[in-house]
Amino acid sequence: MKITNVETIYLRLPDVKEQCDSGQDALVVRVHTDAGITGIGEVDSAPLAAKGAIDGPFSHTIACGLSRIVTGMDPFETERIWHEMYTRNIYGGRRGAAFHAMSGIDMALWDIKGKALGLPVWKLLGGGFHQRIRCYASSLFGSTPEQTGELARRFRDQGFNAVKFGWAPMGQDERTDRALVREARRGLGDDADLLIDAGLVWDAKTAIQRARAFEEQRIFWLEEPLRPDDYEGYAKLSAAVDTRIAAGESESGRAMFLDLMDRGRVDVVQVDLTRCGGFTEAMKIAALAWDRGLPVANHGFTTYINVAAALHWLNSIPNALICEFVAEEETNLREQITRQRIRARDGFLEVPSEPGLGIDLDEDAVARYRVQ
User: What is the arrangement of strands in the sheet containing 38-43, beginning at the earlier edge strand?
Assistant: First the structure.
């Protein structure tokens, strides 16, 4: 079997809001083979930058479009293909969008392998740790503390026993920050886990103050309070507070995750399959975390392609903690572009059992939202 083409599909809602919701557009990758088996993947990044990294032409031996690199290769040779993509695009692809682009191709290759063998990806990865995985309802904060409390009650009534709120309006001032967390806890009740995503808004000193202030609300973790490159600040924060510090969604590849773990000293390592280099790299990151006694969780605020990939991966590693599951009720691509809709039941997600990722594109929706 040989790869014949890598198709990049940019999808976008007609109206995109000015908010931190990456479910409003998406870059889907479809890898075609001469055996008629097609795999799908996703890249959560700057979509057109990642698309350019895939579609781009040959410039020279270490600056080359990823599609050109992988075409003609055997899709089963995922380790070799990953190495070729990295080394032959090393000028532009060591970090950021061009590295993220590798993730979508790698994900699609594992989907192809699973479909060809009739097995779910988690079984190919050697997994089988879970039949279902605990998840948390992931949402942006309400526009006010009171609206946040109402959202928390709604998610609790839907059966979630863990809920995360993030980003604006957190970071405006201490009073608002404390009120947001207080009302979230009040709406959620005492028996569920409350997770807080600060959204890169503070320096280390302020983050330490906020983490201590939030202790009375017993938050499960404090996520990404600092800018991603402030590893020294993360180390100071982690050493100063008892609350778990979580981060990792901004990292792309094991070298960056090593900095986050060894210099930043975070407590929970968050890995996005659509950014980190796909399954091939995510397994290595999870092993590095395991060696350091650290739990891992996925990051994913995009489509069910990402969610399905995360479930396969979390089922394949011994240090999986919890799964992010977006519970936003706004109109987005998530509910539109795949034939399957993944649903939580009593705060858990079932591990897919179908061959490959177990997720398929809705071609009518793809045609409707595709940007040429």
Answer: 3-12, 25-33, 38-43
d(CA 223, CA 166): 9
Q: Which two tokens stand for residue 112?
A: 């192809």
What is the structure's pLDDT at 327?
86
Q: Is 4 exposed, middle or buried (0-12, 13-18, 19+ CB in 10 A)?
A: middle
Residue type, 214: F
The residues pairing with 29 across neighbouring beta strands, listed in sequence order, are 8, 41
Distance between CA atoms of residues 174 and 213, nearest Å = 9
- Give the C-alpha separation, 295 to 318, whole Å: 9
Structural domains for the chain:
3-119 (3.30.390.10), 124-363 (3.20.20.120)
Q: What dihedral angle (degrees, nearest 10) is formed by the CA atoms of 333, 335, 337, 338?
A: 150
How do beta strands 58-60 and 63-64 pair? antiparallel
CA 67 to CA 4: how far, in whole Å?
9
The reported pLDDT for the residue numbered 132 is 97
Q: 18: exposed, middle or buried (C-beta count within 10 Å: 0-12, 13-18, 19+)?
A: exposed
Residue-wise DSSP of 47-86: HHHHHHHHH--EEETTEE-HHHHHTTS-TT-HHHHHHHHH
Cis omega (within 30 of 0) for bond into 318:
no
Pairing of strands 320-326, 132-140: parallel
Q: What is the mean pLDDT of each run of 10 residues along the chain (372 residues)?
A: 98 84 88 98 97 97 97 98 98 96 99 98 98 96 97 97 97 97 98 98 98 98 98 98 98 97 98 98 98 97 95 98 86 89 96 98 97 91
DSSP assignments along 181-210, one per residue = HHHHHHHH-SSSEEEEE--S---HHHHHHH
- Amino acid code (one letter) for 297: A
Q: Determine the pLDDT at residue 76.
A: 98
Residues 6 or more apart whose Cβ sits within 8 Å of residue 71: 3, 4, 5, 6
Is 0.90 surpassed by the pTM of this model? yes
